[in-house]
Amino acid sequence: MAKRKKSRQNRRKVSSAKRSSSSWHATPLKGSFMATSIIGFFITAYLVYPTNPDYGVAFMVVFIAMFIASLISMTKAPVVE
To answer: What are phi and psi of 21, to 5 degrees?
Structure first.
């Protein structure tokens, strides 16, 4: 009997883990978020990178990640009326 209780508890843990991963939803981001990522990338590429390459690369990676997040948001988010 103790084995049955353990197996039922394990099933509950697995099923709750599956539910949490499948409940991910993209939220719509504002257009200014994408504009900020594009403008920030260009400013970093032309002003920061030539003077300090380490900071330039770091900022460009951040702005690229912002741009990718805005693209994912644009394609995966539900249509809001």
So the answer is: -75, -30
Q: Which amino acid is at 57?
A: V
pLDDT at 23: 74
Domain spans, the chain: 2-76
Quote the crossing angle between the two packed helices 53-76 and 31-43, to the nearest 10°.
Answer: 160
| Residues in CB range of 59: below 8 A, 6 or more apart | 40, 44, 48
52-69 pLDDT, tens per residue? 999 999 999 999 999 999
Check if the beta carbon of residue 45 is closer than 8 Å to that of residue 56: yes
Whose tokens are 């084995």? That residue is 3
CB 49 within 8 A of CB 57: yes
Whether the full predicted model's pTM is greater than 0.85, yes or no, is no
**pLDDT value, residue 80:** 65
Contacts of residue 27, defined as CB under 8 A and 6 or more positions apart, other chains included, come to: 73, 77
